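hiii so my PI (J.) wants the whole complex modelled not just the main chain, which honestly fair. so below is everything: two entries, each one labled with what it is. i double checked the lines twice but i was tired so who knows lol
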Amino acid sequence: MDASSSSSLPSPEPYTAKTIAKAAKAAFENSQLIPLSERVKALHEIRKELENAKEAILEANKRDLEAAQHDVDAGRMSITLLKRLDLNKGDKWDSMLQGVTDVANLPDPTGVVSYASELDDELELYRVSCPIGVLLVIFEARPEVVVNIAALAIKSGNAAILKGGKESTETARQLSAAIQTALSRTSLPRTYIQAIQTRAEVSALLELDQYIDLVIPRGSNSLVRNIQHNTRIPVMGHADGLCAVYLDESADLEKAVRVVVDSKTDYPAACNSAETLVIHRSLLHTVWPEVARALVAADVQLLCDAASLSSISSLTPSIPKFTSHVHPVTPSAYITEHLSLTMAVLTVDTLHAAIQHINAHSSHHTDCIVTENELAASTFCRGVDSAGTFVNASTRFADGFRYGFGTEVGISTGRIHARGPVGLEGLATYKYMLRSKGDKGHVVAEFGSGDGKKKFKHAPIEATSVPF
Amino acid sequence: MDASSSSSLPSPEPYTAKTIAKAAKAAFENSQLIPLSERVKALHEIRKELENAKEAILEANKRDLEAAQHDVDAGRMSITLLKRLDLNKGDKWDSMLQGVTDVANLPDPTGVVSYASELDDELELYRVSCPIGVLLVIFEARPEVVVNIAALAIKSGNAAILKGGKESTETARQLSAAIQTALSRTSLPRTYIQAIQTRAEVSALLELDQYIDLVIPRGSNSLVRNIQHNTRIPVMGHADGLCAVYLDESADLEKAVRVVVDSKTDYPAACNSAETLVIHRSLLHTVWPEVARALVAADVQLLCDAASLSSISSLTPSIPKFTSHVHPVTPSAYITEHLSLTMAVLTVDTLHAAIQHINAHSSHHTDCIVTENELAASTFCRGVDSAGTFVNASTRFADGFRYGFGTEVGISTGRIHARGPVGLEGLATYKYMLRSKGDKGHVVAEFGSGDGKKKFKHAPIEATSVPF
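here's the output for the full assembly
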């Protein structure tokens, strides 16, 4: 075989991270003219196909669970992790399907005009929301995230590459196959949603900033941190959820007890649970003992600084649990995300000191003040540099569903693009469309400060969508 | 002197990149409660102090210019760069001062509510714009950028660290000194705006993502690219401005000539100038020869593909300039930002092919279609994945002032946070403030799907600012 005949038959591009990323970008670009109705249809097809393939998916899930049980028995996996894998547990399967329908029914985050101005007679500028491009979503354990993220990406018009945890490989493979089958019944490219399996592929993809526009890690602190430190692509997410509740001088006792207990105990493993309790010194013998009593009754381990420890030490004889639940704090406790029934306690002399401690130690996720004082509330909300600053409300409210977004893409502690709980809007960016309707088109050279030069008009246009 | 007495007198922290970054973060955090009026006062003080220090500043500028002249004579610097250094040229000094006043008069980008919802009776959520934190701004040559960026940062409530080009070191130092003197007459910390001098400091700062929240490079392609590749901190800006104009099948001749000539020649060194002309094949013997004639008359060098070259070759005898101005293209011309009177020309068979070429080769900055067809306009604007998609209007309109923002922080080709020309809004992020006005505060445990559980209300609140 001579060289010319061999070169006339190009060999297919090998299946590499670059091939995947290029295919995703091409799928995104080619999808820009596909109407929303087709994207919504894709979501309904996905739900249908998941129902069709239920048996195969749950069988794959069973294989993952068996392998996981093996790992649990060998002490290599926690029972909590194993439980998260089970797609047939409780109403998980049905919620997963319902989630797809819910996303289909959410308002379209794209095509929304947020700024419109007539720059000159017959020259109209529109800033309009549009998809970002290609998302790389990396998550752990829970296999239903494949479906959840695929639905969010399709609804918002973004292509996505998904990588789940190795524990759920079999399940994720079946779920992805069902999604691809569903996509093949629409005009969306099949490569719109792609799944990858290996960490090596993730590492390679994190280098490809020319194709991938946003990385969304959902999982443990170490997963997120590792990704943040290994890519130039923007990352949306949070590594830590180190939230604090501050009991202000004027804190109401009942509110203090309710808000602190809920923030700490409602779901200790969540990122929006409180890890630190900051107390104004004036409360040490009034509100604090009652809060401590309630926390200990809820089985919370308290790691106290000298002042807060000493002020409740006299209670120890009357509350036997105090002996096992109240301990002196070490400095590292104030920068630890316990994710369990453990809380670090700090005494401060002023609101300002509380704000300073929180800004220096919290992960800028969500922090709360309990106060009856409007000025203190206002000062705290502005002075604390976190995505959420709450007054007399549990940190656990920091959540996309509770905020009313209808979904949650994740929670971001970054300050660029999206911050706090992120809804579908967080998967959109915007572009500017400018249209001249003038007889001769519009050119810049006609504008300026000289004689006979045009001046810009900059008259606001009332518009919610682009009229062309 | 014994060890204990020496340790009782802590030596001042050495002046390092980390010290600077920490000081900036502290200045930012401490400034959160300082009202807008004080920030505006700071801007007026800066203008006053610049006027006071005019002589010293212009003398420093003279020293920079002399050193630069030396470099120009030695062939180490371009005369263009030298000209940019001159603070006393034309109305540059006065515009710089006026710019400070203009920024002072712009609307406050912070404190604006973009989402407000009553989650439950007496539980109110507000999403409110706020400063980002610490900006690191790196720029070249033009020393007035120090003042410009300082004004934008102060107005938007961000602390900033500024690094200018080494060519303007003396001027930048005097400008910074004036800014610091002005700040010392306000309650803003002096470390709110800091200037650094060395590249080593920049390299060190680019590592400090715990203190620095956003990097804004303003300068050459290589400067921006180098920064993008050497930091995990989000970068707002653009490396290339590779803009295209597409002449659609239905393009009007006059509009085509005007828009192409303006896009190419109004200011060839600007990032929003067109570098590529894409032509529908049907125009090769109608519109294209006239456009070519106009471009060549404006001294533009045309690098043409075979089809566009052949269709105008018959004109060469009648237009002598064609011999010196029309040349065959090489593929690299389609990915080159010429920044001069040079334009690459490509012939395509369809609108779709034009969109594909632009998506694959442009820098996603600004691209234009010249067309009389509404559907083609709409398809181009949606199908081209760029920050600006224009119809019958010069690419040169892509500019913060022309868009009506009153200022321009830069132009971003990223898709995260801000895209296209960025106004003061681009220096703001948002946070969520949640306030319970309920008698007992609000806890999550009371909400849920069970009996006696509360349901979320999610009733929109009409609000433009936070009422507490």
